[in-house]
């Protein structure tokens, strides 16, 4: 498998140097692997810190900026960052108003953020945490006890980030983050396996002519393999899997997400099918986002995340955001 | 090759339905294949119309909106749109101030836009045209007499779009578009072949362990094949190929573009190497854009486009833009 890299050992550091070169509005500590809003800490504002294994870009560094994350800590590819990174990030963004850790539900991430929270507490930084666990495909999986955290992370970071920018206190920012996670569900599909730089060959074997329903963002196994399906059939399966669990009673935000190697032309076609299913099921869609946001390196495939919103959540979703990957308003 | 599609015949129409569902700020004529700013025609404003074969998304429909294109006409995958689409687009966006056609230099596109210009003239719509031909890899290629039009299209559409939004007359908008094209050069590299929905298998054969230097965005042959190179070696080759031809005497805009299937993590790492080479060559970089903007379906690889800018071009680049794929300011 050919990759656009120097050597596997420097992939994350190289990317951080590239982020620094492209984004003068971010402070990038390449050695310690922390990406911070240049204007942090913002007086009186709750800080938002997230992080996780690399390989899911633009998540999380692409979501650092006004209206969303204050800082991100990238780990090695598909490997949790260490508590020291999270502590550095928290210290860099804490204005005294406290810091919310947004944690995807993978065992390593949960343990390391927990340890970082204790270390931060020792340093007098007030920490709250939200664990994102939106993937309905399987309960318990490789690296995870309970449900995996995937696409809802984007909704949590955007909406909690908007509330933090309004000056809300830590407990309210944490509460809205938990509310968004509770109102969100995801389901993902792989059309091809993923190859990590360290391994250099696909991490699992997906036979020609088959797809995997319910895949995780590290290539963790899903619910089942089937002969290849059409875009419409995949939308039926994925959206119905989400709706069975979410049972929305009002409008939703829809994230139609690419896993990395699926062309945008195909993602938009898939979005048409997602909207068809939602319309058939009587679910109104308030906003739709289509693109590669929570990826799995070079995996082909897609995921659907729905988040039921009320007026407050929709207002916070629409609030201005200025990051590398998500940007609108103001 | 597995694709997220229904059937090859409906790929473009399906994508247009998906664009319509995701972007209420656009008017999408699925049947006639025209995507238009919802507020077009804008009184007194020159219209900007572009188009070309599908498979390069977000180009061009993702660049329709305030500050950039007024309309886009997508053809079949890797196939020019027809003059009727261009004429419809021109008629939809013309406020009486005329319309600029932004044409990538492929024989079919050039001929069809030329014919559309004649038809529009018959209907009393004043048309100017700019042909984008920035790819230094080869002169003459499959589908092209002269140089191919690639990444510079984004710079032309953004900068001319900003000037049009300021109310400049057609001849000035056309002149700045030509100036941007003249100041821009690109070079692309393929790490894997591209598969079109209609063919269903790779359109060319790229052996394991080799890459193609100077590839076109339809998989047209480049300059040469070599054993796989590192990200740093590729940056040296690509940037130097551009600089040999451009010989900039001032700051540049840099587009570090993914061909579709190369992870953003790798693109950012490559961007670090592009900046290293530019720094070694003494070329200051005013702005950098990293991501999948001018793609080739599922091809792995990247391209570098540089555009030398003066104060006016940089001001227009920085001006607010509000499209699906490019969005900042205001």
UniProtKB/TrEMBL annotation, chains A, B:
SUBUNIT field: Homodimer. The dihydroxyacetone kinase complex is composed of a homodimer of DhaM, a homodimer of DhaK and the subunit DhaL.
Domain DhaK: 7-328
Protein's GO biological process: glycerol catabolic process
GO cellular component terms attached to this protein's record: cytosol
EC class: transferase
InterPro entries: DhaK_1, DhaK_dom, Dihydroxyacetone_Kinase
Name under which the protein is recorded: phosphoenolpyruvate--glycerone phosphotransferase
EC numbers on record: 2.7.1.121
Keyword tRNA processing belongs to the record: no
Reactions catalysed, as given in the entry: dihydroxyacetone + phosphoenolpyruvate = dihydroxyacetone phosphate + pyruvate
Keywords for this protein: Glycerol metabolism, Kinase, Transferase
A GO molecular function held by the record: glycerone kinase activity
Database matches in PANTHER family: TRIOKINASE/FMN CYCLASE, TRIOKINASE_FMN CYCLASE
Alphabetical list of PROSITE patterns matching this protein: DHAK (PS51481)
Keyword Transferase attributed: yes
Pathway info: Polyol metabolism; glycerol degradation
């Amino acid at each position: 498998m050919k990759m656009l890299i120097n050597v596997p050992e420097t992939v994350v550091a190289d990317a951080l140097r590239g982020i620094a070169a492209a984004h003068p509005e971010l402070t990038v500590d390449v050695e310690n692997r922390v990406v911070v809003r240049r204007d942090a800490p913002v007086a009186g504002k709750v800080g938002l810190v997230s992080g996780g294994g690399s390989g899911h870009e633009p998540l999380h560094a692409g979501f650092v900026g006004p209206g969303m994350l204050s800082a991100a800590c990238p780990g090695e590819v598909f490997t949790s960052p260490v508590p020291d990174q999270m502590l550095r990030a928290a210290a860099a963004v804490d204005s005294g108003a406290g810091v919310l850790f947004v944690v995807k539900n993978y065992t390593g991430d949960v343990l390391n953020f927990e340890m970082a929270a204790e270390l931060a507490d020792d340093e007098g930084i007030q920490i709250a945490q939200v664990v994102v666990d939106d993937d309905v495909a399987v309960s318990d999986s490789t690296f995870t006890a309970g449900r995996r955290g995937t696409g809802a992370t984007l909704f949590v970071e955007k909406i909690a980030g908007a509330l933090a920018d309004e000056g809300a206190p830590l407990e309210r920012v944490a509460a809205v983050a938990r509310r968004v996670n509770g109102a969100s569900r995801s389901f993902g599909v792989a059309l091809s396996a993923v190859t990590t730089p360290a391994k250099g060959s696909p991490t699992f074997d997906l036979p020609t002519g088959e797809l995997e329903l319910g895949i995780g963002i590290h290539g963790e196994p899903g619910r089942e393999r089937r002969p290849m399906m059409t875009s419409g059939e995949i939308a039926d399966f994925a959206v119905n899997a989400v709706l069975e669990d979410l049972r929305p009673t009002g409008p939703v935000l829809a994230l139609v997400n690419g896993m990395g190697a699926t062309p945008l032309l195909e993602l938009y076609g898939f979005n048409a099918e997602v909207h068809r299913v939602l319309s058939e099921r009587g679910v109104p869609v308030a906003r739709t986002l289509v693109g590669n946001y929570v990826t799995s390196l070079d995996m082909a495939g897609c995921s659907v995340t729905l988040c039921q919103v009320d007026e407050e959540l929709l207002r916070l979703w629409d609030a201005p955001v200025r990051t590398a990957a998500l940007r609108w308003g103001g």
